[in-house]
Amino acid sequence: MSTRPRFDRGHTDDLISFLAASPSPYHAVASAAERLEKAGFRQVEETEAWDGSTGGKYLLRGGAIVAWFVPEGAAAHTPYRIVGAHTDSPNLRVKPLPDTGAHGWRQVAVEIYGGPLLNSWLDRDLGLAGRLSLRDGTSRLVNVDRPLLRVPQLAIHMDRSVHTDGLKLDKQKHMQPIWGLGTDVREGDLIRFVEEECGLAPGDVTGWDLMTHSVEPPAYLGRDRELLAGPRMDNLLSVHAATAALAAVATASDADALPYIPVLAAFDHEENGSQSDTGADGPLLGTVLERSVFARGGTYEDKARSFAGTVCLSSDTGHAVHPNYAERHDPTHHPRANGGPILKVNVNNRYATDGGGRAVFAAACEKAGVPFQSFVSNNAMPCGTTIGPITAARHGIKTVDVGVAILSMHSVRELCGADDPHLLADALRAFLEG
Fold first, then answer.
1. At what angle do helices 284-295 and 388-395 cross, to 10 degrees?
2. CATH H-level, domain 10-89+231-433: superfamily
3. E-only strand ranges, 44-122
4. Roughly how many angstroms between the first and final C-alpha of the chain, as a whole number?
5. What is the rounded CA–CA span in Å between residue 382 and residue 256?
6. In this structure, are residues 35 and 4 in contact, taking their beta carbons and an 8 Å threshold?
7. What is the pLDDT of residues 364-381, one digit of tens each?
8. What is the CATH number of domain 91-214?
């Protein structure tokens, strides 16, 4: 059988680069901003007055980015077409007093962020990345992208029942990584190491948001390279697809004829409830949309008209049917890898999709020539949720939940079909074009 891929892999190759360059939400928004800058977007500051000029703009706040393109002639009441996503992924995050250890091992104290599959973090070579807050009031990104830490698993000789009783991990006792040897644990060692890595003077760092990541790079997998394995696909896969879609729409020859204002909203903190100043349950998106209306001379009435015609696609990964656990899925809904993006439905509003939203997404996929699949949870199992219902309720905006079907969700390393990221990006572009 031929090993040539079915599709041009340029998009997926770029996704691999994006994942590798984005070990934290702060790096992810910087990576997205870099791509948007190349498409002509320019950064605006929240503390400055905004004007009603046309073109592409973006705003950064911590681990969140909101970007939008105002076409020529856009009225103050022009509706938005929004793709929402999130930049954070479950991982191990460094505590305020990180220096610890026992029995001759030097360790780093970490806290569990979100809902990771803890066993997938065992015996992995881990790097350290995130944001440093400096004494002069500025911040700096840091990425120690080499084997630095490791959470060692207990040898089977000391836990013979692991295969019969299952692996039992205590989040406090069993998940603290080692990073060296020594009995003299000194306060400040880890941060001094990070300062040296960044070329900073001792004491320059006064605050930090640091987290671990697997240093194993993303890679194509399988005989025909038809699968993609990598970290943080939930949900950087969607952030990357939405960024690519927005850049493509904004640089098209007919961009100024768009009937909507296309928007990318990538939030932080989805994995722990979205309740932060950079989360979907905060005011960030609504504030940006309102300020854009008012900057173009609009009134409250214009804002209300704009929101009434606005639609948001909440794009997040979902579950592909697992060949070893098919009984855990709904028996009539089995999303498959490389089968196209999924439409996520839950009548109890864990997802925001309704019939009208389905029609919007179906029209976008038809325009893009992209197949799509449907996902619902097994009735006997609880359903996860996304930023979709939060966005719909907070802003009164019609919202549709979509995404890409993957395996090993919340693992340190997830798996998807190598064609699906490209298919999702094409559908998102068609949606943003209206």
1. 50
2. Zn peptidases (3.40.630.10)
3. 55-61, 64-70, 80-86, 91-102, 105-113
4. 39
5. 44
6. no
7. 999 999 999 999 999 999
8. 2.30.250.10
